[in-house]
Amino acid sequence: MTSEPRDSRFVGVSTFDGLLVLMVLAWGLNYSLMKRVFQEVPPNVFNALRMTLASTVFLVVIRASRRWVDRLPARLVSVFYTPHPLSGRDWFDLVWLGFVGHCLYQLCFVGGLARTTAANAALIFGTSPVAIALTSSALGHERIGPLHWAGAALSAVGVYFVVGRTASAAVGSTLTGDLLITLGVVCWTVYTIGGSRLMSRHSPLYVTGMTMALGTVPYVLIALPEFWTVSWGMVSQMTWWLLIPTALLPLCFAYTVWYSAV
User: Fold this and answer.
1) Domain span including residue 102
2) How far is CA 125 from CA 67, 144, 180, in A?
3) Does residue 3 sit within a domain?
4) pLDDT tens-digit readout, 31-86
5) How many separate domains does the chain show?
6) Which of 8, 11, 44, 117 sees the fewest Cβ atoms within 10 Å?
């Protein structure tokens, strides 16, 4: 969505394009898997579990990367290793980005997904690159050419025809979910653009992992009362197994690739 040449300092351009495709697949698959899980476990409860798992994995890898930095290929060092110490401003940014980009965003995401279709949720969230590009342009961070404006208009029209017209005929069933997913796009836009300063000082892995961990704490506290309402003995083994891919693929892998792209 930007007119600037892509930065290939993390990995080769062709390899990174492949990672972005895998990121899209991981996020796309996640909508259907989460809808399946919500049949047995309340959305916030399951999401709190997968965020906790993802945060734990992130913190372990962040710690390990400091020991293994000398063994990493040169092109991957920037992705995994943070050479700069944390300043007071860095901590402030990590906290508010964690709250907006993980706590608020995830509340909107699972709340919306539970109230709308997986197709609607995926399509609405698919407009996030457009929202990010337009916001970045409005703030003067990037310039958008005519083709990008045409793409943004086409995206908006597509959302209207697929989601908007359906929502008008099913106000009570999907509109609330669609609006929550839209708020999630706003949170994701703020999180993406707001992290640009941190990304100039710290690795994508570190910024993603630390904001994830910091955002998970208030999220778990919000979801905690619902934990006591779950009949854990009735939860199937399949749901427990799905906790792993829904945490590692869309949260750990895809988030790191996304911020690497940023």
Assistant:
1) 13-76+86-261
2) 37, 20, 11
3) no
4) 888 988 999 999 999 999 999 999 999 999 988 887 777 666 666 667 777 777 88
5) 1
6) 8
